[in-house]
């Protein structure tokens, strides 16, 4: 059979056209639609599974038993899929019926990207980033790159004023504070040793917090219970052997109350039916004659009706609890010596409950739950000026300032840390090490005490002596280090090799600035030289801490040749707050520009790629 060449060519042409058309039509079916990655709708915050989307979407029944959103999205069309993460593991996810979007559990995103999130309550309107109130009565999901707070300075930093943003600090309520010593009136730390010790940095922060609160909070309410000269209370004498006398004491050059009772609770002289809430700070002047003498405060939890008896006794005891009795020791040195006592009874009860309760989750009591029922005295002694107030910030401040004066090493000028400290990769710091942060904080306290007291030179001398460790390298017992044999640095932890911790260094600079601003010139000049030396180092080294998405806590990646020690967000926020404050002192644009860039990292911004 003969084939017609033209017919064959025509046939082949038709076949090619059919195949081409089919392929074309097939390709059209797989063309990516323009709305494959739709514009992110803020209502569609998924938190792990489709059920929680009900809280995010303003939807209605679609007539098929599903929930349809305003744009036709159907929750029942979500399909289970496995997301393969970096070819390493899978995560259970969801996708919609049109394959337009994939929903990844927020519980995974939170850990993967180190972010935070929480559902808001419809009952409480939210404040958006731009400061506007969103009062829509529906739950919303709050996505936060960082929960840390930025505190923008209200003006130029004043060495006599508020210290940074420390009016927001409440050092005494921290879990790592065992209690407030009844002997010294300062916190006892358990941060690195469970039995408790005096941590100079923490004590200085306690002082700076109360000093700052004194400048920012309204005048306290004060209720005088007994002042022999003007306010005389009706004290109850339950026993014939109990007596109380108001006398003029020539030795004390004042009118005081002299009392004597037996040692049992039933014989105590007492001021009852006080019924005081909220204003729970007790102040008293007392002199106890025998070691069986004590001051006892009866406090009730109004919610549980549980009663606590808080005792202040002249024995060498920090804190002890026996049933409902909480004991604080005033020290044997309190015998036959006048002692001004300032105690926050809410803190004293809370710390006693924490000592006696479960360690992992200590029982909490609200300040508003407590009520003072009675003030009692046992044994033999004298007292005067018994009052209750909202707070007594300056008494707390001066207690800490006195501790710093009395516990400074007169040879080194430092305030030693009495515990060992281990930092990964560095040689262990032996007990007695000094911290530039502790030195700076202490100098900030003493500079303010010197100014506020009208020039008490004890505070000035201690602050000036506190400069000595700035002259001595860490290996010699000081706090000084040098980066690349060029830039001087003041070490928060005097490690070997140097660690170059940023936040502690800047706090040490603020102490130098405070002393330079308040002391006479012969002291101020040296503090100013150390400050300028440190600022020069900071400007030349600051960008070494920038990771492009956050900051490094220190420079161990350069000292030890290891991975960077990234600052968690609260420390990163401290870096930002410190730079914002320094920018009010030094107008070098490097400081303010870096602060703004680092602030942006807290909102998810990152340095650009190449």
TrEMBL record:
One GO BP: heparan sulfate proteoglycan biosynthetic process
Organism from which the protein derives: Glossina palpalis gambiensis
Stretches assigned to the D-glucuronyl C5-epimerase C-terminal domain: 409-599
Protein name (record): heparosan-N-sulfate-glucuronate 5-epimerase
Molecular function, one GO term: heparosan-N-sulfate-glucuronate 5-epimerase activity
Residues of the D-glucuronyl C5-epimerase beta-sandwich domain: 253-379
UniProt keyword terms in alphabetical order: Isomerase, Membrane, Signal-anchor, Transmembrane, Transmembrane helix
Entry membrane topology: Single-pass membrane protein; Single-pass type II membrane protein
GO cellular component, one term: Golgi apparatus
PANTHER family tied to this protein: D-GLUCURONYL C5-EPIMERASE
Transmembrane segments: none
The family this protein is said to belong to: Belongs to the D-glucuronyl C5-epimerase family.
Catalytic activity: [heparosan-N-sulfate](n) = [heparan-N-sulfate](n)
Pathway participation: Glycan metabolism; heparin biosynthesis; Glycan metabolism; heparan sulfate biosynthesis
Group of enzyme by EC: isomerase
Record localization: Endomembrane system; Membrane
Enzyme Commission (EC) number: 5.1.3.17
């Amino acid at each position: 059979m003969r084939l017609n060449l033209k017919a064959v060519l025509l046939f082949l042409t038709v076949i090619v056209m059919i195949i081409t058309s089919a392929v074309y039509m097939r390709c059209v079916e797989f063309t990516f639609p323009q709305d494959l990655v739709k514009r992110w709708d803020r209502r569609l915050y998924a938190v792990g599974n489709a059920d929680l989307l009900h809280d995010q979407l303003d939807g209605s029944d679609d007539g098929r038993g599903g929930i349809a959103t305003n744009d036709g999205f159907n929750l029942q069309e979500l399909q289970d899929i496995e997301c393969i993460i970096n070819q390493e593991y899978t995560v259970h996810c969801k996708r919609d019926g049109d394959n337009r979007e994939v929903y990844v559990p927020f519980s995974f995103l939170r850990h993967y990207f180190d972010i935070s999130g929480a559902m808001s309550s419809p009952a409480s309107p939210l404040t958006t980033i731009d400061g506007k109130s969103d009062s829509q009565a529906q739950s919303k999901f709050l996505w936060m790159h960082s929960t840390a707070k930025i505190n923008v300075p209200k003006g130029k930093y004043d060495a006599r004023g508020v210290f940074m943003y420390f009016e927001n600090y409440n050092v005494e309520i921290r879990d790592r504070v065992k209690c407030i010593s009844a002997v010294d009136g300062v916190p006892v730390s358990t941060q690195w040793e469970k039995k408790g010790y005096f941590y100079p940095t923490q004590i200085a922060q306690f002082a700076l917090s109360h000093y700052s609160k004194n400048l920012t909070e309204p005048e306290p309410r004060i209720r005088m219970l007994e002042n022999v000269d003007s306010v005389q209370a009706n004290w109850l004498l339950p026993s014939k052997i109990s007596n109380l006398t108001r006398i003029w004491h020539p030795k004390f050059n004042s009118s005081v109350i002299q009392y004597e009772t037996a040692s049992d609770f039933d014989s105590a002289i007492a001021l009852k039916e006080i019924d005081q809430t909220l204003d729970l700070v007790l102040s008293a002047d007392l002199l106890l004659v025998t070691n069986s003498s004590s001051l006892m405060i009866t406090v009730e939890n109004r919610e549980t009706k549980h009663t606590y008896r808080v005792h202040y006794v002249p024995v060498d005891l920090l804190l002890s609890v026996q049933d409902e009795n909480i004991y604080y020791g005033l020290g044997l040195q309190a015998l036959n010596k006048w002692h001004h006592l300032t105690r926050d009874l809410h803190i004293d009860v809370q710390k006693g409950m924490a000592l006696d309760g479960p360690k992992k989750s200590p029982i909490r009591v609200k300040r508003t739950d407590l009520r003072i029922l009675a003030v009692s005295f046992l044994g033999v002694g004298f007292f005067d000026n018994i009052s209750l107030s909202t707070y007594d910030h300056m008494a707390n401040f001066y207690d800490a300032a006195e501790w710093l004066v009395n516990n400074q090493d007169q040879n080194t000028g430092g305030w030693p840390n009495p515990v060992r400290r281990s930092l990964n990769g560095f040689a262990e710091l032996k007990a007695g090490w000094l911290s530039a942060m502790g030195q700076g904080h202490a100098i900030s306290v003493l500079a303010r005490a010197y100014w506020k007291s009208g020039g008490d030179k004890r505070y000035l001398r201690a602050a000036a002596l506190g400069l000595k460790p700035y002259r001595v390298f860490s290996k010699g017992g000081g706090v000084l280090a040098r980066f690349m044999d060029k830039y001087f640095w003041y070490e928060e932890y005097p490690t070997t090799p140097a660690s170059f911790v940023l936040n502690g260094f800047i706090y040490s600079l603020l102490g130098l600035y405070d002393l330079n601003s308040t002391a006479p010139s012969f002291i101020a000049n040296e503090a100013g030289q150390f400050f300028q030396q440190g600022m020069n180092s900071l400007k030349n080294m600051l960008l070494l801490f920038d990771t492009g998405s956050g900051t490094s806590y220190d420079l161990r990646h350069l000292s030890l040749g290891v991975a960077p020690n990234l600052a968690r967000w609260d420390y990163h926020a401290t870096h930002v707050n410190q730079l914002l404050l320094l920018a009010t002192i030094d107008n070098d644009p490097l400081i303010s520009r870096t602060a703004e860039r680092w602030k942006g990292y807290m909102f998810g911004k990152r340095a650009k790629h190449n």
